[in-house]
Amino acid sequence: MSPKHIKKINGENRRAVAPYNFVELPEKVVEAQKLPSVDRYHCDRHTGRIECTLTTESPLYIRCGLTAEEFQQAKESKDLSDFFYTNFSEKATKPVIPGSSLRGMLRTLVEIVSFSKIDKITSNKLCYRSLGDPIYQANFVENIGEKQESTHPKVDCYQSKVHAGFLRKQGIKYIIEECKYGRIDSNFNSTNTNRTFPSLSSLNIYIGSGPGKTPIWDLQHKTIYVDIDSTEQNYFFPLKYRIDKKTGKPKLDKKGKPEIRHPDFYLRFRKVHTASFTDAPGLKKATLVITGDMQHKHLEFVFLDENVKEYSVSEEMIGRFQDDDQITKWQEDAFPKSEPSPDSRKKNGYFIKDELLTNPSCKEPVFFLVDEQDETKVRFLGRAQMFRLPYDLSPLDLVPEELRKPSDMDIAEAIFGYVNGEAPKDKARAGRIFISDATCTSSGNVWWKDDFEKTVTPKILASPKPTTFQHYLVQTSTERKQLKHYSPQSDSEKTVIRGHKLYWHKPHGYEDIEETDTKKREKAKLQYTAIKPIKAGIAFKYNIYFENLSDVELGALLWVLSLSSDKSQILGTGKPEEKYCFSLGMGKPLGMGAVKIDYNLYLSDRSSRYSNLFNDNNWKTGEEKQPNITEKQTECIKAFEDFILDSDKGISNKDRKTPNETEATSLKETQRIEMLLAMLRCDQTPNADRTRYMTIEAKEYQNRPVLPTPLQASNPNGTSGSSRITPKPVLKGKDKGSKPIIKKSQQVQQKPKPKDNKDNFKGSNFNVFARPPKPRKPKR
């Protein structure tokens, strides 16, 4: 049985907030029925189409693709602002929602409601992001006990676990030639005129300013000659306080005591005492390695010209190092394609090209850790002594094996198709569902800015950060020391991923989506993009075609599609008086992409379809007679629910429980589906302060608060919720005495009156976002 996330998080300082949440993992995968043969239409199965009308409930944006010419010019997709289109001449009047986007949205929801597998997860190991994480530091630094040198006090001594060497290509394999290394003070300046060495101050070893400082290539990887300790020595570093730049005095903590930057300690390393760029008697040949500027850093590295040992490095590890999520902007700037020679790297930030690494004189300095279980193997490598280290386990490793077996076939795979199957199922199977593009049917202006030529610059939305393990992994405690992560030290510390990630719907307007601060935009202009969203209330039409679906399979599709339509109440899939929306396109964390779908089902009588070619002046479709279509939908949805809830082939007994631990009598009462409905709900959403991003500036991530379940976040007065909210912090330096400015989205949400286009939601059913007042805090 998989661990379950903590149901109730007490204490607002331990409860995180986010614009997203998760539908938990199932305990068991519900396997599909036997697939039909593909050489005929089966009389006991359903073929037909579902005619859908999609209506935007908030601004919607799906970016267009690059043209062949733009691709050849190596343009970036973020520079394209047009909405997706298929006809260039109609891109201003007939935007299109691609069928692939609709298919992806529908498949995700079918996977959730049918308790299907969770296997489309990255197998790449994520990397530690916080240098201050004690678990991360333990990989790099070892406390070797208390030491005392000369007149200094007896205190802890630390030693680096990191090795150094040069990456090379030997035949078809990569190797690291290990070498010994030492530390050289960047403020060093020899008094020996015979061994002149220019001052390595920050003024002339770096270019740029702030976090963007990069080493200059006149010195980076340059040959240097050094007088260095023959063995590692213990060097004393005295107590340092954090200094207030204005007063020049130590900063004080809350108790009025000076803030300590670091205590007394020893560091064991080989120190460079004299250095020169020209050879001289008694000096060792080395390579100067500058790893980047940090506050208070004053020691750079020299790699000695000696081959101690060779280690093999897998091509997979080199590829992982050069993945997009590994190469930082700093690395791109510090290791451009043009250095150390023109066109020496395939991309900025990459290692030197393979053909150059085969040259003995061309080496790439690297730091690396060896595997503690097998010291002949390299664990990982990087360009700094404290490099980006992957966790021991990948997100896929944290999905229980029984939820991702390639040999099992679930309902989503049976409907949508699959590849890479294993016996006893086929290796691959085509889907039996086909979704057309959705074309705009609304006339007149459809654009959020009322003008196709006008663009919007949305607030910055970076890529997801699953390394925020207190959000993305199941936590059984909120205690920071007990948080589960991707490198468990024992079986008892193992956990699983939270599940399917979805975004809350939000009643947000211009001020919540568009970045209007021109200073912010100018400061980080490379991170911003331009878009042309469609406004709310715009309709699109498309068709879902299907072949040979069983009652259960068609029921799964209809169960999902009915949720955001009025049929939800008729067919009993949603809860009484609740309204739901789906999410599509970009900007979901900002409140964009809310859509509803209405549909009509048309079943095709294949015998009738092929008995005649024409029906009067039209093609014969087999859809001419649709008797009792509502009853047929009810039958299919019931067949689906009965199949999922079957005591033998259906979900596990644990998944059959309601949030209150009673036995569920329908699918929508199960805890997992309750979580889904909470995330899809758009008539009553959590307060804006519970669905915002936390901020680094206010240090809200510092103590790793835990993200609650969707049921606690959406139901503050329920049994699994808390009536308190996490208020947005006041940043240091802000006027706390002034009257706070309450954003529109933070006020009590009354049912809105019709708005004009200036307020961006005219023509939509945006009254579904009306919320009751915040509940009162309980009496203490």
Q: Please work out how many helical segments DSSP would assign.
A: 17
C-alpha geometry = elongated
- Quickly count the domains: 2
Radius of gyration: 31 Å
Question: Which blocks of ≥5 consecutive residues have pLDDT under 50?
Answer: 190-196, 718-726, 730-780
Q: Roughly what is the average pLDDT, rounded to an integer?
A: 86
Q: State the distance separating the first and last CA atoms.
A: 38 Å
* Share of β-strand residues: 15-25%
How many β-strands, per DSSP? 31
Biggest sheet details: 7 strands, antiparallel
Structural class determined from secondary elements = alpha+beta
Describe this structure in words.
It is a single chain. With 780 residues, the protein is an alpha+beta fold. It folds into two domains: 12-124 and 397-769, no CATH class; 166-178 and 308-390, no CATH class. It has 17 helices and 31 strands. The strands form nine sheets. Strands 2, 3, 24, 25, 27, 28 and 29 form a seven-stranded antiparallel sheet that branches. A hairpin with a 2-residue loop joins strand 30 (614-615) and strand 31. The longest helix is centred in the C-terminal third of the chain and has 17 residues, at 629-645.
